[in-house]
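User: Can you help me understand a structure? I only have the sequence.
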Amino acid sequence: MTLATEVKKITESKPFYALTGAGDFAVEKLRELPDRVIQLQARREEAFAYAGRVQGKAEDYANTVAERLNALYEEMAKRGRKVVSQASGEAALELTEVSEAAEPAVAAKATTSTKRPAARRSTASKVS
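Assistant: Let's start by predicting it. Here is the structure, written out as C-alpha cells:
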C-alpha cells in the first residue's frame, strides 16, 4: 500500500470525521468567546448594581426586623414584670394569711407547754 492509499483510508473513516467535527466545533466556540466575554462583563456590571440594591433592601429589612423584635422583647418584659408582681403580691398575701392563721395555734401550744409537770417521788428511798 502506498501512502496516498493509507491517507485516503484514514480520511474516509468515521473516527476521522468525528475528530474533525469536534475540532470544527471547538474553533466555532472559540470564535464566539470574545463576544461572550463582553456579554459577561456587561452582566457583571448589572450584577454588581443589583447586588447593591439587594444589599440596601436586605439592610432595611434587617433593621425593620430588629426594631420589631426589640419592641416585642420590651412588650414581653413588661408583661413578665406584671405577672411576677401579681404572683409575688398574691404570694405575699397568702403568706400573711397563713401566718395570721398559724399565730393562734402557736400561741395555744405555747400556753399549754408552759405548765410544769408534777414532780415524781422515787420509790427507791422507801425500800431501803
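Now, to help you interpret it: The CA atoms of residues 72 and 78 lie 10 Å apart. Residues 10-99 form one domain. Let me know which part you'd like to focus on.
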